[in-house]
Amino acid sequence: MTKKILLTMVVVLLTLTGCNSIQSKKGKETSKKEQVVALLKALETGESEPIGIINSEKYIQHNLAIPDGLAGFGEFVSSLPANSIKANTVRVFEDGDYVFAQTDYEFFGPKVGFDVFRFENGKIVEHWDNLGEKKGPNPSGHTQLDGATEVTDLDKTEENKTLVKGFIEDVLMGKNPAKITDYISTEKYIQHNTDIADGLDGLGAALQAMAEAGITMVYTENHKILGEGNFVLSMSEGKFAGVHVAFYDLFRVENGKIVEHWDVIQEILSEDKWANDNGKF
């Protein structure tokens, strides 16, 4: 993407600020999910129309390497080498004013990322993300992005969010780790973390290996739980191997138990390196 294209994108956005909905070129109003997928793809293509979904007067940025607001977004993208971004969104979900997506990126090397956007009056006004290195398959042969994508059980969204919140607090934050089988299926647990095999046995073996190597994983605070049907995203903070990190965990729930898991762990920049004052969460 060239600086000229980025400037064009910003100009177009400014002309669209007064619109409360974005329509396709054929005049059909698009959903928030479609708008987010198109926005992420525009980072690759340089297409200007999808950028119009961002509120040019209010855009709160939680990627700590990017300055706040639309101007900050433009400044960051224009600083990148031409044609350096590729984006293929694999999963996208909606929870009220929030849309969250899981994307296969090419961004200074292969990456996997979660992006969360908050809408207000038909425009995106806030953005969070977590980006990690893309690696090979895990011991069970699963990648960081393959697996189920179909959204089901829309009537169980809140129930599934409550289940995941309980798992984060009881198991990952250590309030009552013995309750793990209340949350994770003992019959089917598909793992997409690159270092962990399927099943509770795989999880246990990985945790034991970490302990023997002196590697700690500590969840200290859960900041947000978002969900649509059988998929739930948890955004948490803690430490991994002594490093201050953000944990983004995506879970698939089936019959009241967690049966699949994807994640990205990213180091949180020290405050002296922040490009904005909004914090990671």
From TrEMBL:
Domain SnoaL-like stretches:
165-261
**For this UniProt entry, which residues form the secretion signal?**
none
Q: Which InterPro entries match?
A: Cyclase_SnoaL-like, NTF2-like_dom_sf, SnoaL-like
Name this protein carries in UniProt: SnoaL-like domain-containing protein
Q: Which organism is it from?
A: Psychrilyobacter piezotolerans
